[in-house]
Amino acid sequence: MSRFQFSVGPWNVHSGADSYGPATRDEIPFEEKVKKFAELGFSAVQFHDDDAVPNINNLSEEEIKAEARKVKALLDRYGLKAEFVAPRLWMDPHTIDGGYMSSCEKDREFAMWRSYRSIDIANELGCDKIVLWLAREGTLCAETKSPVESTRRLIEAIDKMLDYDKKIKILIEPKPNEPIDRSICGTIGHVMGVSAATKDPSRVGGLLESAHAILAGLDPSHEIGFAMAMGKLWGVHLNDQNGIKFDQDKTFGVENLRQAFNQIKVLVENGYGKNGEYVGLDVKAMRTTKTEDSYKHLENSLRIAKALEEKAERFDYSFQKKCVESRDFEALEMYVMDLLMGLK
Ligand SMILES: [Mn+2]
């Protein structure tokens, strides 16, 4: 029995299309995914605004809320909560050059409209978190935007969201690059800086994705720890990543088990989840995966996360203390490897 409540986004189950090739699996209807998520033991679903309300651009504000209420009823039917809503700004023709930081005023207004609608949807779904993955906020050509002005525009956009709803919390999910070349807000440290510069830092925090930290050349467990030290880790996207390349969203723990262990360990040690935070997965099946195995990467991620939680619980802190005092880090390292190999 895990101490954690797990969440998952509908995009975790996808047809296998990538930048270089078409789909390799069938699309699975939204309700079927939700039913399966409940069966797999998830407690909550993560949403993009248009996961909850497809065709959002062509609906009125009232129509959007009505559509969101239908999704809430569907979640209730399967005993699931909504974790957050994230405006999906990167897919839209209005945000080719970015949303909050676009050079075009009309695009920036569109980004705010989608952000306000995301807040409306969150309210209808009964959740108080908005996640900003700033996919296209940065530069493809460095001289097109001032990093100073762009950073200020992000802070202004968040301030407007905080004004729009006095209870909403904004979580920035940092990523250093891809699809943008140079991101404006690439790490949890950047997120803490932006949070401090907003009008209500108590409502602006972070969501750390393992793969994004690795892409920044950082250890995810230290990014998690840094945010937790500030009381601002309000979400995680656990997954894995083989080195610094494109964002792979691999099954949690399959590339670097020790790094995965240390992510779970820091969450366990610091009481993550005690304020209702979810352990979110953001994992993709391999392109070779068949339709009938569409959920296997989720099952495997849960299995590894729970097994590592059990390892973290068994971690021998008195032995660790002894090793640290005698500066025998070699023995401590071998103990961790033995623990992970099932020899302890
Ligand atoms: Mn990712």
Automatic annotation (TrEMBL):
Cellular compartment(s): Cytoplasm
Entry EC no(s): 5.3.1.5
Matches recorded under InterPro entries: IolE/XylAMocC-like, Xyl_isomerase-like_sf, Xyl_isomerase-like_TIM-brl, Xylose_isomerase
Gene Ontology molecular functions: metal ion binding; xylose isomerase activity
Xylose isomerase-like TIM barrel domain boundaries: 35-248
Entry's Gene Ontology cellular component terms: cytoplasm
Keyword Isomerase carried by entry: yes
Keywords, sorted A to Z: Carbohydrate metabolism, Cytoplasm, Isomerase, Metal-binding, Xylose metabolism
Gene Ontology BP annotations: D-xylose metabolic process
Main location per the UniProt record: cytoplasm
Reactions that this protein is recorded to catalyse: alpha-D-xylose = alpha-D-xylulofuranose
PANTHER family in the cross-refs: HYDROXYPYRUVATE ISOMERASE, XYLOSE ISOMERASE
Protein family per UniProt: Belongs to the xylose isomerase family.
Stated name of the protein: Xylose isomerase
